[in-house]
Design a protein that fits this description.
The chain is mainly α. The longest helix has 20 residues. The protein has one domain. The chain contains 5 helices and no strands. Helix 1 packs antiparallel against helix 2 and helix 1 crosses helix 5.
């Protein structure tokens, strides 16, 4: 699972980079934040036969999680020492949800 996690992080970063380059989203979220988001996705969302299916599962989880304050308030950075959104005014869950939505649309997955 760990290898697939890293592959999906790279895919998400590349995809979001394309969205930045195409001026679809602003440069508000650095790659590390994207890595943090994917880190909080449960392991059972990884390991499908195709990466595309993993991406779909990851985006669906993040889309739903970013819509629920009780869910995203429990998310941490990979070190598990810092909370991902709590106490971080520079990190806005609604903006992260917008990035996930645009990435989801880019790869042709209809949003939930």
């Amino acid at each position: 699972m760990r290898r697939r996690y890293k592959e999906i992080v790279r895919c998400v970063k590349r995809l979001v980079g394309e969205l930045y380059d195409d001026r679809i989203i602003p440069r508000d979220y650095p790659g590390y934040l994207l890595e943090c988001l994917v880190y909080n996705v449960p392991n059972d969302r990884f390991g499908h036969t195709r990466r595309y299916d993993d991406m779909q599962a990851v985006f669906r989880y993040l889309w739903n999680g970013l819509g629920s304050q009780s869910t995203y308030n429990a998310w941490t950075e990979p070190s598990e020492l810092l909370m991902l959104f709590r106490g971080r005014p520079d990190r806005i869950p609604a903006n992260a949800r917008n990035v996930i939505e645009k990435a989801w649309q880019r790869i042709g997955i209809p949003s939930a």
